[in-house]
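Example complex used in Figure S2.
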Amino acid sequence: MNPSITPLPTTNQQSPTLVLKASRGWAALQLGEIWRYRELLGFLIWRDIKVRYKQTVLGVLWAILQPVMTMVIFSAFFGGLAKVPSDGVPYYLFSYCGLVPWALFSGGLSRSVGSLVSNANLIKKIYFPRLLIPISAVVGGIIDFVLAFLVLIVLLALAGFFPTLRILWLPYFILLAMVTAMGVGLWLSAMNVQFRDVNYIIPFIVQSWLYITPIAYPSSLIQNDVVRALYSLNPMVGVVEGFRWALLSTQTDLALSVLVSSGVAFFLLITGLFYFRRMERTFADVI
Amino acid sequence: MSTAIEVVNLSKEYRIGAKQTQFNTLRDTVMDLATAPFRRLSNLMHGEAYGAAELSESLWALRDVSFTVQQGDVVGIIGRNGAGKSTLLKILSQITEPTQGQVRLYGRVGSLLEVGTGFHPELTGRENIYLNGAILGMSRADIRRKFDEIVDFSGVEKFLDTPVKHYSSGMGLRLGFAVAAHLEPDILIVDEVLAVGDAEFQKKCLGKMSDVAGEGRTVLFVSHNLQAVRMLCKYGIWLEGGKVVQQGEVSTVVNQYLGASQHFDSPSPVQTTSQKQISLTAVRVKSTNAPEWGLVQVGEPILVEFKVVCQKPITNLNLGFGLRSESGDTLAICYSAPYQTFDLEVGAHIIQAQFSQFNATPGVYTIGTRLEANGIELDWPRVDLGQFEVITNEVLYGIRQESLINGKFFLLPEWKQMTYQEVSHEAIL
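Predicted assembly (716 residues):
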């Protein structure tokens, strides 16, 4: 037996940099670690953005085309044909103003749910905080959002809407949309590692969610305060109403729905983070 | 010297295979199918892995593994496929958690379980260097600083702005290794990265690995290439069935490992092959003049021993064997007939084959066998029973390395200088 490799116990004065052992139950979030890996997070976001429109003819135009096409269809059928009210704003602006944050949310959610499985090769071969993967999938949607938002600004200017001080609230609503996408995305992406069923459910979830969010119709159709509060349990209600309030100066009473929506969104995010951290340890073995 | 890695009673359990449940009636079966989704869902909510409760068969990929590695040591981990080498590296790399026991690491760990992890085919070589570097744990500043070196080492300057999907597989590997080679962790964990790529690539990797080892970093290295393990490592750890069989000085461990793969002393599996009249149960190889089994020196005479167990008397036995290289190429096939056949009584017998010289280049070789008598096949084990390593001896140390690394055979002719007059009368020219 060689002196250099001896059976334990060996005494060691320094304390280890890292101790690896089985963990049980709920794990600490270790958000500090995510901060340490922020450069990798940056690279992952950059990769997602860079790769998304590779080998497409229209490229980044897709980021604009999708919400614009939906706006056209909504305007023709809901606005024109069904005469859905739009809080006194031209219907196309009304719907597009909802579709822009919606695209940020739905795109982020859809991408994050499949993100772990599509990065299985990374998960099986190298260590880094797994949270980076779904987070980068959500945050990577910001470029698409900015492009669609630029179109919104042009439409607003053409229609004679100019920014008021309310626009200072807009970043919060953008954050709220991403927090919601991340919260739900963390839950579902971790489940998707174990059960690929989630992949099949997600288009259905996104579609249903669109209907329960006031995008094609105004939430002012709901008069009862209790029902409104329940309705705002959907965090995207607060986001979409917030967007319209900030950009179109619609006269909705915002406080209640934004409060309820924010509460739910952050609740989803925090529970999602803990659930993800708990499931994370089996990812490499199961994926 | 201080400790770099301490592994204490490390175990890892994997659940495999589904539990067999007996369903007596159709109703039970239907009920099970109907309730299974809810059971799984409840497991999911309790944070259990997919189907864990339904898997009863478990496999201990590692069982009570303990060892200590000192700072600056280069340690090779050897063992057959399924011995637990990769599981050990996965735990040390923090990819998966141990089931029991713990690992204490002193210093920053970098691991390389695959060349080019995270390469994206749509991104260019330049972009992938940054991405891969970041994934391996390098900072943006580090990568920028070493960028030129990495490009130089990879030899793909011309294609830096070409998407990696257009690279040949060799170029991809070179680029991936170039990035990894410029990692500077305190502890480096490397899996079988040398198993891929051509001979030149492997040589480059080996060279870089020995540089890294020379810089005083702690390196943990898994390889099937025992020659590489011998060259690079100071110490060896031999894993078998998830347990440490032996650890210590590398040549001792490697020699023991090769010696043990002969199965010569294990009890003959007479019962299991009782339906056969005769079976070949073990093969071992050594240099004729050396005591150790499993090691053969280039150019020396060698001895191959076959252990044959007969259930019935056999006449006219023809023993054949094939020599296979590590990459699976059959290099030679040799039968005893028509030069020699054997008449054997019931019981165990040893048959020897001697060669005056064995000239395969250094590496690990295996021997497959086949027995027949009077043209009828009697036994053909589908696994190669014998394994041995060819090494260079001291006499050959002065020889150019490429004559031992490239090529399959090592030739050692007798050279002689002649004058024209000496040969002209034989009318050669």
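Chain B touches chain A through 60 residues (CB under 8 Å). Confidence is low (pLDDT under 50) at residues 266-274 of chain B.
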